[in-house]
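The record is given unchanged here:
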Amino acid sequence: QVQLMESGGGSVQTGGSLRLSCRVSLGTYSRYCMGWFRQAPEKEREGVAHIDVDDTPTYADSVKSRFTISYDAADHTLYLEMTSLKPDDTAMYYCAFALGHRYCYPELNPYNYWGQGTQVTVSS
């Protein structure tokens, strides 16, 4: 019943900015923890940013101070604002929803709904 759809990926030069969007269809469910993940071909999937129902964000150390996660409840859209992009940020990015978890505990792997992904490529 929960559906997620990412958009906004593309190609950008080092130091550039990009904003990813994730339209969230909640169905009959209330808001729960949501997050952004990324995966490059030779790397493990990495949790990038998370946001709980009180709009409290958490970030991976690799993106802290450069990325901002937010949620627009009126538009049911999750955003990831990315600045000062580096080639190491190149990956497939996807959003996720943790049904039943009002607050975020990424170490528990609580996410159970996923979007299809959007590609971000950062060139030197």
About this structure: The chain has a mean pLDDT of 95. The chain has no helices and eleven strands. The CA atoms of residues 19 and 50 lie 16 Å apart. The two ends are 41 Å apart (CA to CA).
